[in-house]
What does this fold into?
Amino acid sequence: MGNDTYSITSTASTGFMRSPGKLEERAREEAARYCESQGKVMKLISISSGQPHWGGGMASAKIVFRALKPGDPALTSEPAPAESGTPVLERPAVAPTDILYSELTKLNELKEKGLISEEEYQAQKRKILARSN
It folds into this structure.
């Protein structure tokens, strides 16, 4: 995609796989392996998923990430705006309560839909709550 930015899409092999959560995990693992093989660190930009429509299609998950050198300042900066999908939920500085509530609600929805693991949920939740201080 340019500027050390890549995307990986993982698609179900059968129509019986309805949840894109496992596909997202597979795409993340593949992205992490790629970055590691290049001696770089992965910075997640966005996550999007698609569920099959009745009568056709396959579940899929797409992640957009950057492969950056360790210590690159972009690793600690705010993520770039996502073209589509679910942006990574992290912003610096103190945020108003309504924004925190909205982000926590969205984060919980991602967890309930199986798009992020419990560990990812807890990590992002800590980041969001840390901004309320």
In short: The chain has three helices and four strands. The helical segments are 21-37, 97-112, 118-130. The chain has two domains: 1-88, 89-133. Residues 80-95 have pLDDT under 50 and may be disordered.
